[in-house]
Amino acid sequence: MAVVGPNNRGIVIPTAIRRSLSPQPSIIQESVTILNSTSPNSSMSPPPHTITSLGQSSNNIDSISTSSSNNNLNNSPPIHPHHFNSHHPASHHHHHHFHNHPHHPILAPSPLFALPTLNFTASQVATVCETLEESGDIERLARFLWSLPVAHPNIGELDRSEAVLRARAIVAYHTGHFRELYAILERHKFTKTSHGKLQAMWLEAHYHEAEKLRGRPLGPVDKYRVRKKFPLPRTIWDGEQKTHCFKERTRSLLREWYLQDPYPNPTKKRELASATGLTPTQVGNWFKNRRQRDRAAAQKNR
After folding, report:
1. What is the mean pLDDT of residues 104-126?
2. Largest Cα span, the chain
3. Segment 199-241, tens digit of pLDDT
4. Which pTM value belongs to this model?
């Protein structure tokens, strides 16, 4: 039997794999903290009731759990990417420096109860999404998206918000929910600032599916064939001829930064990623490869 949570907007989670979450701060309270830190002049208050344990709150907002359901919850394994049903292209739903392969499981919030919510505006939702995305905490980002009510008063505005759509795509990628990822990227046009990250997710998701189908890692020729079979949608592509190599202006900027500092720290990698439209992982790999080439050239000239 499959259960659709009230906030899961089409993602079906089998009853057998639901799991109780240990007591933790309400994602709504965390979101209020984020908003207060980004907008100190407009303070918000947390909701009057907070989740204290699965299916319970300080004023008993939820009482729909059954004893049989709780028995399943207490003994269920964590949710892995393959547990998600890919036949429901939900419209909701990426870094811990953006992993190229979504191998790390993310626990989906329990579909048994609705988290208490504040009436966040679309702008506030976008701010929280951007902050959590930049922090690299994908699990908290997923929990925040799942906490949003289905009948949000600004649902139309949320479905047009690039920050929210990008967050949904990131979570879909990291949970292995690739059909949803593709649907989001194909149905909504994104600005250039988001292209690099979204293109990387599009390609890596298709590589991951091809590797799973073949049962082996892909070589350069295999990846080329995957790119030809699944070209970038125009919604995340500016029309320039795209190859697996970086554009010249991107390489030029990378070389300029390399001359200043061949060993950029994570903060500088994120800054450079934002400036080039790449991911921090791609930036790190470029610097690593460039250092290796320089060392090889130095040894050859001895």
Report:
1. 59
2. 75
3. 999 999 999 999 999 999 988 778 888 998 999 999 998 776 5
4. 0.51
- Cα R_g (the chain), whole angstroms: 21
How many CB atoms neighbour CB 302 within 10 A? 4
Which secondary-structure segment (H or E) carries 162? Answer: helix 162-174
Given the structure tokens 């208050």, which residue do they identify?
A: 45
196: left (phi over 0), alpha (psi -120 to 50) or beta: alpha
> How many C-beta neighbours within 10 Å does residue 274 have?
15
Q: Which H or E run contains 128? A: helix 122-135
- In the chain the beta strands, taken as DSSP E runs, fall at 2-3, 13-14, 51-53, 56-57
Compute the C-alpha angle 73/11/201, nearest 5°.
115
Please tell me the distance from the alpha carbon of residue 280 to that of residue 141, in angstroms, as a whole number. Answer: 18
Q: Map tokens 């902050």 to a residue.
A: 131
Taking the alpha carbons of 8, 143, 29, 60 in that order, is the dihedral positive or negative?
positive
Residue 229: count other Cβ atoms within 10 Å of its Cβ.
Answer: 9
* pLDDT > 70: percent of the chain: 57
Domains of the chain: 2-188 (no CATH), 245-302 (1.10.10.60)
